[in-house]
Structures are given as structure tokens and as C-alpha cells.
Write a structure and sequence with these properties.
Porin; 3 helices; 64% strand
């Protein structure tokens, strides 16, 4: 409860500090090859390379699972940013990533068998098989800090870092007679580091590209709109 109260207090303080600033930005971006996708792909490749072990005794059991990625590695990110100083900004990102995999699983029970020479040994008997799909929905929220190396009227370059929380919701859709299962997975720490970023376009509306690694992918592209308070525009 104390942690939740602290998060709420910090979030309220973040909102008030941003509302007091004269310059604000909102952006929408699409990223590719996120950490979630790369991690799932690495697990799949490891499973493919792994060989089934031999049974230890007659009471031994084993389960095997194979997964195949069925979706393009693209995620959606919504950004809000406010300028604290001319070259430093803080903001917040709300992102969504989805992984869809074809999933096959088998259950085995150890059994006594006889080889072609008549010698006995312990081997595996397949007792069940499940086929279906795994839908993994990833929702994350991250505070972000941005440093602008230089700002021009139509072009800027900057670096960005964000860290926050990732929530997983998984749904297993079976093609057999078994009912589908939806479960909420525990939350995890999530991050994004993008050292090379740029934006180009008009003064208020710009396209942007960001390159790094993490929740938003190794590359993110989108559009960004900057708006200012009326009193700040009058003084220009």
C-alpha cells in the first residue's frame, strides 16, 4: 500500500510540474523489434535447439512445448512531454505490444519398452497433445527524460531514456475441447534507451525517429506535435 501511495504522489507531482511549463508535446510512434519480442524469440530458438532428455525412472513425466511467432514485431507508443529547460524535457509513455504465437505442447510418461534386440529400456510414451495459440498482451508505462543536443527551427537531435513497469496479460486459445485460459502475469521492470534520435518538419508538427533498445524497439518512428501556452506565444 505504501508503494502504491508513493507512486500516486509522484504521479500527481509530475502532472503539476508539467502543467506549469510553457511548452508541451504529444506524439504517437510505432516501434519495431522490442525487448519483449526479442526475448520471446530467443526462448523459441533455445527450445528448438534443446533435445528431449531421457527418462530418469519409471515414474518420470515430461512436457514439451514448441512456439512459432505469427505476428510482426510492431508496437504502439503514446508520448507526452513537457520542457523544463530549453534542452531538457520530462514526459510519460504509454505503450502496447502484442505477441501471437502458434503453440504445440505434448505430455509424456515413462514406460518400459523393448528394443529390436530384445533388450528392455525405459522410454517415453506420449499421453496427450494440445494445439492452439498464445496471445501475450504487454502494456507498459514509463516516465521519460529527454536531452536535446541542439534545436533548430526545422530539425533537432536528442537522446532519451525511460524506465517503468510492464504488465503482461496472456490468453491461451486451444484448438482441442479444452476451454481457453486467460491469466494475468506479474509485472516487470521495463526500460528504453535511445541515444540517437531526431525530429524534422515544421515548428509545431514534426516527424521523428529514435534508435536504441528496449520496450519501444530498436527503432521507433512517428509524428510529434508541440503546443505552447497563450502567454508564451504572445511573448515571442
Amino acid at each position: 500500500m505504501k508503494r502504491i501511495s508513493l507512486i500516486i504522489f509522484l504521479f500527481i507531482g509530475f502532472i503539476f510540474s508539467c502543467l506549469a511549463q510553457p511548452e508541451h508535446r504529444i506524439a504517437i510512434g510505432f516501434g519495431g523489434l522490442s525487448h519483449g519480442f526479442n526475448h520471446a524469440l530467443a526462448d523459441i530458438l533455445t527450445d528448438v535447439e534443446d533435445c528431449q532428455r531421457s527418462p530418469r525412472d519409471i515414474n518420470d513425466t515430461d512436457e514439451r512445448t514448441e512456439e512459432h511467432m505469427l505476428i510482426l514485431p510492431v508496437n504502439l507508443n503514446l508520448h507526452y512531454e513537457c520542457t523544463l529547460k530549453n534542452h531538457f524535457s520530462i514526459g510519460l509513455c504509454l505503450g502496447y505490444d502484442k505477441l501471437r504465437m502458434n503453440q504445440e505442447s505434448w505430455s509424456y510418461v515413462a514406460a518400459e519398452k523393448v528394443d529390436r534386440y530384445g533388450d528392455g529400456y525405459i522410454g517415453w510414451n506420449r499421453v496427450s497433445e494440445d494445439n492452439g495459440y498464445l496471445h501475450r498482451h504487454i502494456i507498459f508505462i514509463m516516465p521519460e527524460a529527454t536531452v536535446y543536443w541542439f534545436k533548430k527551427e526545422r530539425f533537432s537531435m536528442y537522446s532519451k531514456f525511460g524506465a517503468g513497469v510492464r504488465f503482461n496479460i496472456e490468453k491461451r486459445e486451444f484448438l482441442t475441447s479444452r476451454s481457453d485460459i486467460t491469466e494475468f502475469k506479474e509485472h516487470h521492470f521495463y526500460f528504453q534507451g535511445s541515444p540517437i534520435c531526431f525530429e524534422v518538419g515544421k515548428k509545431n508538427l514534426r516527424s521523428f525517429g529514435e534508435f536504441g533498445y528496449g520496450a519501444q524497439g530498436i527503432g521507433q518512428f512517428g509524428v510529434k506535435y508541440t503546443f505552447k501556452k497563450k502567454e508564451d506565444r504572445v511573448g515571442e
